[in-house]
Amino acid sequence: MPMLRSGAKPEDRLAVRRLVASTGFFSASEEEIAVELVDDALAKGEVASGYRFIFAEDAGQPVGYVCFGPIAGTEASHDLYWIVVDNTRRGRGVGRFLEQACAEAVRGLGGRRIYVDTSSRDQYAPTRAFYLACGYREAARLDDFYAAGDGKVIFVKSLD
Ligand SMILES: CC(C)(COP(=O)(O)OP(=O)(O)OC[C@H]1O[C@@H](n2cnc3c(N)ncnc32)[C@H](O)[C@@H]1OP(=O)(O)O)[C@@H](O)C(=O)NCCC(=O)NCCS
């Protein structure tokens, strides 16, 4: 299994762009948003930005990452903003490893719930299966949220 590294470094801007692009799942604007979260964490620090990163690295090269953070205004709820594994490494346990590290970190911060949003489109069926496999349950489904026929599915994992 790859090594885990917490916290974002300047060179992670490129790594995140590369990893997100490798999936073929995300639009150019979504790719920009992923990099902006790294920028925010680098500029303000992970506490002030609210964006925490854990990278999975193989021989010093990021092969996946997870970005998460506390949801402002809640007692102990956290958001899992992004989890991405390099396209050539998918299906080999890296995602599960990253999710476990994220859940451990959230627990360590006193968090009790992790929320994650995804799309209801067929393309995301493996992603939804992944969250279920990691102990999340579907908490809500908002039809036509992203676009007509493209709903938002909200999953939650309880750490109680
Ligand atoms: C979703 C993602 C992060 C999962 O990471 P991964 O390393 O491929 O997943 P893992 O190998 O750790 O899988 C863990 C479990 O999830 C489930 N799972 C993973 N991929 C699956 C697939 N394609 N179909 C069905 N179930 C799947 C399985 O139960 C698996 O356990 P198993 O291998 O013991 O059967 C990764 O595939 C990815 O980057 N996908 C594209 C981007 C994305 O959708 N990100 C999430 C939205 S931000």
Any overview of this molecule?
There is one protein chain. By secondary structure, this protein is α+β, with helices and mostly antiparallel strands. It has a domain at 3-112: Aminopeptidase (3-Layer(aba) Sandwich), CATH 3.40.630.30. The chain is 36% helix and 36% strand. It has helices at 12-23, 28-44, 46-49, 94-108, 125-133; strands at 3-6, 52-58, 61-70, 77-85, 113-119, 137-147, 150-158. Strands 1-2-3-4-5-7-6 form a seven-stranded mixed beta sheet, with helices on both faces. Coenzyme A (COA) binds at residues 23, 25, 82-85, 90-96, 118, 126-127, 129-130, 133.
Features:
5 helices; 7 strands; single chain; alpha+beta; 7-stranded mixed sheet; globular; binds coenzyme A; 160 residues; Aminopeptidase
Helix/strand-derived class?
alpha+beta
Any low-confidence stretches, pLDDT <50, length ≥5?
none
Number of strands: 7
Helix content: 25-40%
SSE series: EHHHEEEHEHEE
Rg, alpha carbons: 15 Å
User: Which ligands accompany this protein?
Assistant: coenzyme A
Write out the strand line-up for the largest beta sheet, numbering strands in chain order: 1-2-3-4-5-7-6
State the CATH superfamily name of one domain: Gcn5-related N-acetyltransferase (GNAT)
> What percent strand?
35-45%
Biggest sheet details: 7 strands, mixed
Instruction: Write down the overall mean pLDDT.
Output: 97
Number of helices: 5
User: What is the CATH topology of one domain?
Assistant: Aminopeptidase
CATH architecture verdict of one domain: 3-Layer(aba) Sandwich
Molecular shape: globular
How far is it from the N-terminal to the C-terminal residue, by CA? 27 Å
